[in-house]
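Feature request, filed as a ticket because there's no other form

It would be nice if the structure record came with a short human-readable summary line next to the tokens. Right now we just get the raw output. Example of a typical job, pasted below so the devs can see what we mean:
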Amino acid sequence: MKTKLQNKIALNIIRAIAALVVLILLFLLGDILISGVPHISWHFLTSASQSFESGGGIGIQLFNSIYLLLLTLIISFPISLGAGIFLSEYAPKNLFTAIVRMAIEVLSSLPSVVVGLFGFLLFVVQFQMGFSILSGAIALTFFNLPLLTRNIEESLRAVPDLQREAGMALGLSKWRTVIRIILPEALPGIVTGVVLGAGRVFGEAAALIYTAGQSATNVNFGNWNPFNAASPLNLMRPAETLAVHIWKINSEGVMPDASAVSAGASAVLIIVVLLFNIFARIIGNSLYRKLTATK
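Raw output as currently delivered:
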């Protein structure tokens, strides 16, 4: 009787803690969305920001955030995929593998502001790339690599060894077994990790303040030549992202409607991150059902 009572008490305490965490999350999200959603409109999402006048939007910052995210994934995903496959399928237990794993752990524990300062000193100053989209994308690659690599490795390790043995029994090489059998089986987990990592990168600010810059240059959305300075695709132009814009408004914004712009931009950021998380679950479950023929 005493054991059952202890178990019941412990279970109720755990439930209360879980409910408290959910309530705190709902309070934070509710406060941001309630204060910010009324300020969101098509004009707000597409118009340029204003430094001294009211009525500005977040169009350029929103585009910069999406563009930086795509560039970061293009750079980081192939590297993470190769590292994850190596660590999961090929890496022996030796000093080199231990160093690689330690490097991944160190990178994952670095504060984003440290990554930003490193990117500033190396890419902006030493390589003379200046405050640019490319500098920000490379800095975010360092920020995103540990998460993606670990996710891919764990997804590959979750595939049963029977799958590997079946590939070998069919006469497939180790590489073809990984590409044809192991990787498709691990694809749902990999996609989920990529989408969740994208949401994390989308909301990053500290690393981009020192690399991509704090100014949103006027771009011509009618000019898509990436070598033109006015083109939105130009990699060497400064690019203030949505998260950096929110920080800048709250720290030094002087426009009359600064609080409204900050609230609306924060709500947009939260909504996009929530959509990333929802899509990650939907895409992961859909791919799992498709690849495993599960209803």
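Something like this underneath would help us a lot:
The chain is about 75% helix and 0% strand.
The radius of gyration is 23 Å.
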